[in-house]
Design goal:
2 helices; 5-stranded mixed beta sheet; mainly beta; 4% helix; 34 strands
Length: 648
């Protein structure tokens, strides 16, 4: 029995030794894992070769940390190398993929770009901070022109949806489709046709085109367009005498007879005849339709007249007719005939109210013009020119008041100071050019300074004796221009409340020798005024046109609150031209630039006289153009052609 006990104890001890040897630990303290009968752990990572997918790499074993992008399946999971660290489904760029940030699952190729965070959220190699909506246009804050960088439908390349309150194309404009500077009525603007840049509140109303060009929904005064010829006018007042040349003189005096209708005075220096044609005039007529005043053509009757109003206080308006070669007590001094404007047919030889010069050959009456009351008697006065008066044809002008008979009775006398200047060859009331509430007047001196010419403005009221050199304003040219051949008070062409004047210089040569020029001078006016510095210079078209031979204000034709001017060039082209200068004027230009004009046929001398009046009684100003050489009613019978002011 002792022997079997010894055997059993020996077997038990051997089994214990065997179990100790299979623990897998370094039981013998030799710094190596004890070999296991079940496998080898060559890399000493605690995993046998059967368990370890790479028993030669201690960093590769089940459960080990996967090292990204090293090409090894470190955790032996069988899924290969770790190339999507953030688990967002995109391989990192270090692993050959296109995830630009493999540590942030919110940053992926094609992701949503978060503007202004400084991060390339969609891996397109740009942060997108300059173009938040990715429409190809940078935002305004970084020098771009995208007005709404969070809306890809709004950028400079987008198509504008008009009047929706949104500026799709970033041009700051949602209401002005035609680009004329005015918003459409759809957005509470005033442009009545936002598809047509020619229709807006600033447009000129074109006569007779059936369109409300200026969007005021009314048949207001309008711009006639052009160019035209005299056959395009509305009414003609024809001369009646062969070679009579009706239209040598033209005056549009307003209502001469007090019947509420404007009238027109037409003269012929060929026959010494003056006709008063009474309005309203709505169809073609003849100069002798109402009153014929006959005179002697040798006296120079037919080209010079004025309608000053009631000079003598008898309750009736007067008509003054100049006869510069008529005779007074001292011989051929010149005469001004005064007669009732309501007259019927009369011969000047029978008229007893006359004004005469006192020196022979001075051509008293070569120019006449209406003036408001200068002497305080409550009656208008008359300005009369005598261009050959003075010791060297200096010229003189006289203010004649009620009761005067000769130039010696003048209430005021203006003595010329230019040798052979022929001052007072033309005269006109200038309106209130200095803003003192009193009308002023202008005197032309076309031969002053050896043909340079000039124009003198005197502020009313005036009395006593003055020299021309005591002017209040002197308009002078830079060369030989015959400045002052025509002068006219033309109303207010720029709407500033001051009277403006036009001065013609038919000898000016900017566009060719003698092409001519019209200077438009806007009040307030004082002192010396050089034509070089004139803001508004309107030149004749070609050499020899002599633009500015005649001038007249014609009132506000287009209803914009500024007055217009007619300028005659009877020598222009083959038959003369009358040009309309619209107010407000625009700097230096040529007469045909943007203006309307009417050309005569060969020999017509259209523009020999110009004027403005409401002849048809419709409340709109009309334009008058004299053409003394016109042949429509016979050879050189002449006539006056009327363009009616029209509405839409």
């Amino acid at each position: 029995m002792h022997r079997w006990f010894t055997v059993l104890l020996t077997v038990s001890l051997m089994s214990l030794v065997s179990l100790t040897a299979c623990s897998g630990k370094d039981d013998d303290a030799d710094d190596t894992q004890d070999e296991s009968p079940d496998g080898v752990d060559a890399d000493d990572d605690g995993w046998t070769e059967d368990e370890d997918c790479d028993d030669n790499d201690p960093y590769t074993s089940p459960g080990a940390d996967d090292i990204p992008y090293d090409g090894i399946d470190n955790d032996c999971a069988g899924d290969g190398d770790l190339v999507d660290v953030d688990g967002d489904g995109y391989v990192g760029q270090n692993g050959g993929g296109d995830d630009c940030n493999d540590n942030n699952p919110d940053i992926i190729p094609g992701g949503t770009e978060v503007c202004l965070n400084g991060i390339d959220d969609d891996c397109d190699e740009a942060t997108g901070d300059n173009d938040c909506d990715a429409d190809g246009y940078d935002r305004e804050g970084v020098g771009g022109d995208d007005c709404e960088d969070y809306d890809a439908s709004r950028n400079p390349g987008a198509e504008e949806i008009w009047y929706d309150g949104v500026d799709q194309n970033c041009d700051g404009n949602d209401g002005d489709q035609d680009g004329d500077g005015e918003d459409a009525t759809e957005v509470d603007g005033a442009d009545c046709d936002d598809l047509d840049p020619e229709r807006n509140t600033s447009a000129k109303e074109i006569c007779g085109d059936g369109i409300d060009n200026n969007c005021d929904a009314s048949a207001n005064q309008c711009f006639p367009g052009g160019p035209f010829d005299l056959t395009d006018t509305d009414v003609a007042i024809y001369g009646v005498d062969g070679d009579g040349r009706a239209g040598d003189g033209l005056l549009s005096p307003g209502d001469l007879t007090g019947d509420g209708n404007d009238d027109v005075v037409i003269g012929s220096s060929e026959t010494g005849t003056v006709w008063v044609v009474r309005g309203p005039i709505t169809e073609d007529s003849f100069v002798d339709a109402d009153a014929t005043i006959t005179g002697d053509p040798a006296e120079g009757v037919g080209a010079i007249f004025a309608a000053p109003g009631d000079l003598d206080g008898d309750g009736a308006g007067d008509l003054a007719i100049g006869a510069p070669f008529g005779s007074g007590a001292s011989g051929q001094t010149g005469v001004v005939y005064l007669l009732d404007a309501e007259t019927s047919d009369v011969a000047l030889a029978d008229v007893t109210r006359v004004l005469t010069g006192v020196l022979e050959g001075v051509e008293f009456g070569a120019a006449v013009a209406s003036l408001p009351d200068q002497d305080g008697d409550g009656k208008p006065d008359l300005l009369v020119g005598a261009p050959l008066a003075g010791k060297s044809a200096d010229g003189e002008a006289y203010i004649m008041t009620d009761g005067a008979a000769t130039s010696d009775d003048a209430y005021a006398l203006f003595l010329g100071t230019f040798n052979n200047g022929r001052s007072a060859s033309v005269l006109d009331s200038a309106g209130d050019v200095n803003g003192d509430g009193i009308d002023d007047f202008i005197i032309g001196a076309p031969q002053a300074n050896s043909g340079q010419g000039g124009a003198l403005i005197f502020n009313g009221p005036v009395e006593g004796v003055r020299t021309m050199s005591s002017f209040d304003s002197w308009v002078f040219p830079a060369g030989i221009e015959l400045l002052g051949t025509a002068v006219a008070g033309v109303g207010d062409t720029n709407g500033d409340g001051y009277g403006d004047v036009a001065v013609g210089a038919p000898g000016e040569s900017t566009n060719g020798d003698g092409a001519g020029m019209v200077y438009l001078l806007q009040g307030p006016l004082d002192d010396y005024i050089s034509t070089i510095k004139a803001e508004h210079r309107i030149a004749g078209e070609a050499a020899g046109d002599a633009a500015g031979t005649t001038l007249s204000g014609v009132g506000d034709l287009d209803g914009d609150g500024t007055d217009e001017v007619l300028a005659g060039s009877p020598d222009a082209s083959a038959g003369g031209v009358a040009y309309l200068i619209m107010g407000p004027p625009e700097g230096a230009s040529n007469l045909s630039d943007g203006q309307a004009y009417w050309a005569g046929a060969s020999g017509d001398r259209a523009g020999a006289g110009v004027g403005g009046a409401d002849l048809d009684g419709d409340g709109l100003n009309d334009m008058l153009i004299a053409a003394p050489g016109n042949d429509d009613n016979g050879n050189n019978t002449g006539g006056v052609f009327v363009i009616f002011g029209q509405g839409i």
